[in-house]
Amino acid sequence: MTWLPLCLMLAVACLYYVFYLPGRLFLGPEKTRAGYLRERKDAVYENLRDLNFEYKAGKVPDVDYTSLKSSLQDEAATILAEIDRLEKNPAPASRRARI
Amino acid sequence: MAEIGSFALLLALALSVYSFLAGIIALAFQKRTSSQLVGVTAGTSGIAASGEESSLITTLRQASERIGETARRAGIATFAAVLLASVVLVICAFRDDFSIAYILHHSNRDLPGPYKFAVLWSGQEGSLLFWSLLLAAYGFVLRLRYKTDPRLFAYASVVLSGVQIFFLLLLNFAAHPFAIVQGTIPADGNGLNPLLQYPEMVIHPPMLYLGYVGFTIPFAFALGALIMKYPGEKWINITRRWTMVTWAFLTCGVFLGAHWAYSVLGWGGYWGWDPVENASLMPWLTGTAFLHSVMMQEKRGMLKMWNMWLVFATFWLAILGTFLTRSGIISSVHAFAQSSIGDWFAWFLAITLIVFVFFFFKNKSHLRSEHKLESLVSRESSFLFNNLLFVLLCFTVLWGTWFPKISELVQGNKVTVGAPFYNRVAIPVALLLLILTAVGPLLAWRKTSLESLKRNFMWPTVGAVAVAVFLLITPQNWGSPFGLKPWQDISYFYSLMAIALSVLVTLTVASEFYRGGRVISKHTGQGMFASMVQLTHRNTRRYGGYIVHFGVVVVIIGFAGAAFNQDKEMEMGYGDKMTIGPYTLICRSYTDDDAPNYASEWAVLDVYKGGKQIDTMTPVRRFYKASRQTSTMPDIRSTLNEDLYLVFEGLNQDNGHPILKAHLNALVMWIWMGVWIMLIGTVLALIPNAPAPVRVPAPARLETARTAPVVTGD
Prior knowledge:
Oligomer: heterodimer
Radius of gyration of chain B: 29 Å
Radius of gyration of chain A: 26 Å
Strand content of chain A: under 5%
Shape of chain A: elongated
Largest sheet of chain A: none
Number of helices of chain B: 19
Number of strands of chain B: 10
Structural class of chain B: alpha+beta
Shape of chain B: globular
Helix content of chain A: over 70%
Largest sheet of chain B: 6 strands, antiparallel
Distance between the termini of chain A: 56 Å
Largest interface: A-B, 59 and 71 residues
Number of strands of chain A: 0
Order of helices and strands of chain A: HHHH
Structural class of chain A: mainly alpha
């Protein structure tokens, strides 16, 4: 029965670790639609950077580059416009939590 | 000791159940209080908004967050408990504690130390414990990294706990690794399966399991994101590294398995389309498809539903693979453990399918695509075709694997499908995939013009055609792969195509590095090699991916060598000669030996090439005393051109002469080299990018922007 105290100690240690919560919890920022849009903006900017690099590398002809760049810029502009709108008329703090 | 192990398993189960239930309660409360708080603040709940009510909801929310934290900690503590159980089992194996049935059946006193360690995953109960341990370890890391996105990680943690509960239920109630032997305890154990007594077997199962189990993480994130309607694609970003690491482990596991089959089973091949081999290949195929299609979701917000299904299918196929190896439902040389736990797995597979389908249909509106396919000639369409081909191949393998069972149910007799069935689909699909591997990186996102195609494909295509013509016109006596005449045999045609397309991929990969390096070199004044290194460091994922593609090409060249394989079998007395390809083998002697764990018979053969002795080889056949089973240990002489593979098949009972089989396997070493390159590429792709200056100006077209909101994210 030498195993019994060991098992008890193990159980107590686990319970202590699980349920003893000193201090404040880290909850992190709530994700908002503006946050989501900023992620999308980053993705579109990255696509633009890739396109520029491929153009400089000679992979994309001028005509393709102009048209692709233009459509990516339109996409970025749409996103920026919505971010701008959201920043001008922010939702109440509690409403932001709903995303 | 066994009692401590049993207790640890029970404790782990209790902790997992708590982590699962408390996690669900916390998330449900957080969701509810969050919406109530919105209602109260906005005064739309139909109840008068009061400070008291708001404060009550806030208190409830804080309480639910604390419950959520205890759930996370319970998940972490589960790892400690499962780790303890595993350590106890390994200690019992080293202490030769044959009072534990599992140790009795899978170990013996003379078993070498490393194999005693491998006992942990050598049988049914132990390998399930190992599965559980790896899952708990992945969960441990995930729960420690929760600060990345606490809400998403909380959902993923609940899903992980759900999977963990299943394995711990199995361990506690169906396949207990600490079950005690009834009656007299034997003095020695039954020993480990001889096929598993090979150095690679100490690392192959952990790698494979790390791959299998690891796919639970992307699945947990995907299901979590689906349930919580996660806004955006950040979850994809978070899981990408997990998926790549898991994919690397599975790749390593699959190829270590192939290498083990090649080095131990003694039939001269590395892949036999065995159900258990197929079981490891299927999640690899869907996982590879996911790694490609995920880029479309990240870059263009497309294929969201498809990716969700791919992640689920990969996880589901990994469990199905474990089910195949455990249930004994399909016979295989690799199915080391068979029992009645198949029903448990069948139920688990059904439940996960139902849960996933339910949430998919409930929240699928959240997964609508942000863009449409603009052109058939674009990066997107190349990814799409790539995915379709991977899924087609996966379905073929799934169908072939289950066909014996299906035919038994329908016709009453088992019809087994062999390599020709799989090869009929796998080879053309692999060739098409090679074409896409070459084409994909050179296509632009959205659409690619004819001019762009000409610009990017001209030289790689010329190079590939030139190599194909060279292989065609060279004489056959140059050895493999020269003198390939595709009209002589369909396998030659496939080999020629595979090599030519491999050259095409290599040239496109090289051109990507060269062009990118040239841009950096022009801007920085560095040499080309330094520029290429910097290029790779700036976008490790892309250029690491290209190196993986190059590794795949090298593997495919290795596969293409199979068209040139030869074999010969002969009884060889002293001084007898056998000729195969450019080699002449002369039997110098044959003898036997006795070791504590096994007795062995072996032959000593001198190998001559071009009239000169180049090597001495000793194929062995072993008889393992504890398990009373025999096993061959082929001797393999590997070169870049071919492997000389000798098997000691047995002794002629009349005259005592050894019977030897020689295989000449072309280009096999390329396969193992290719795998190393693939792994190096994956490691590179995992390294964070070096910061690059952002030179893209902010779009100056806000005034012309459409007023419609950006699709999804709500």
